[in-house]
Amino acid sequence: MRFVTFDKLGKAAPGVLTADGAEIADLSTHFASLLDVVDGGAAAVARVQAAMASAPKVAAATAKILAPIPAPRRNIICVGKNYHEHAKEFHSSGFDASAGKDAIPDFPIIFSKASTTVIGPNDPVPASADPTNSVDYEVELAVVIGKTCKNVPKAQAYDQVFGYMIVNDVTSRQLQARHKQWFLGKNLDGFCPMGPWLVTADEVGDVTKLRVTAEINGEKRQDAVVKDLIFDIPTLIETITSVMTLLPGDIIATGTPAGVGIGFNPPRFLGKGDRMRLEITGLGVLENAVA
Ligand code: MG
Q1: pLDDT along the chain (291 residues), means of 10
Q2: In this structure, are 141 and 199 located in the same domain?
Q3: What is the CA(186)–ligand 1 centre distance, in A?
Q4: Same domain for 88 and 52
Q5: Is 43 helix (H, G, I), strand (E, B) or coil?
């Protein structure tokens, strides 16, 4: 199922796309939010299926789609340098304050983005808020956790996943570099476009086959498949839950492929009016302009 959060008379409402994608079934009389659906797990998804036929419908083409999880309860957990070619381009860019002597990390690099970074599809990314004018894009597959879990072995990792969506890990490269710790450079308000859909794991199937792409002003910049991850999704879930409990609705952004702006020499930072078009197979298209 492809879940959405949409604007209903100025309030965020949960919905689900009909099979042909033409309409959104309004779930707001059944659930407060998509987090409410995620919390309810398989039983909630079964309730959605039962409610779909009789739920009020709105046309998907004219609805304002919001971020699927517009207000995450906790920071978005993010993974740095998790595709080989991107790890190399970042390592040699001059912006990698985390650099050891090797481009490829021995263990996953984990940081986070605050909930206040989240914006929805078509919302402008406020790049002018970056005092260093070094804003960059990062298309990423995001995993949405479906269960409270701790000490998850790799073999059981996918059982903890509710679904998947696209995030854009927008970054100020100068802030990322000069503060050493990546947090500030990743946490400007509005620097995490998300959506358009939260797609359930059963609908996605083999997530390692998904193609992850980004175009800037119509020019293809990033293009990879999820199986190219250095640390795959089971490894990430095992690593994170070896130290902390994950909760339903937690989001893990799994890292970005090669082709970001600092992969070019000189870097190609984003500026006002640039258009980002991110796509992952089956997860829709996430478009945002730079303001
Ligand atoms: Mg990233």
Answers
A1: 98 97 97 98 96 96 97 98 92 84 90 98 97 98 98 98 98 95 96 98 98 98 97 98 98 97 96 98 98 96
A2: yes
A3: 8
A4: no
A5: helix
Could you tell me if 124 and 198 lie in one domain?
yes
What domain range is 214 assigned to? 76-289
Please give the backbone phi and psi of residue 3, each rounded to the nearest 5 degrees, phi first.
Answer: -85, 150
Q: Are residues 140 and 21 in the same domain?
A: no
| 76 Cα–ligand 1 center, Å | 11
pLDDT per residue over 51-103, tens digit each?
A: 999 999 999 999 999 999 999 999 999 999 999 998 899 988 989 887 677 88
Instruction: Write down the pTM of the prediction.
Output: 0.97
How far apart are the CA of 131 and the centre of ligand 1, in A?
A: 20
Q: Examine residue 71 and state whether it is found in any structural domain, yes or no.
A: no
Element (H, E) at 216: strand 211-216
Contact present, 258 and 89 (Cβ < 8 Å): yes
**Burial class (CB within 10 angstroms; exposed 0-12, middle 13-18, buried 19+) of 7:** middle
Does residue 123 lie within any of the structural domains? yes
Residue tagged 């970005």 (tokens): 256
Task: Calculate how far, in angstroms, residue 60's C-alpha sits from the geometric centre of ligand 1.
Answer: 29
Q: Do 32 and 152 share a structural domain? A: no
Quote the ligand 1 centre to 2 CA distance (angstroms).
Answer: 24
Distance 188 CA to ligand 1 centre (A): 14
Distance from the CA of 96 to the center of ligand 1, in angstroms?
13
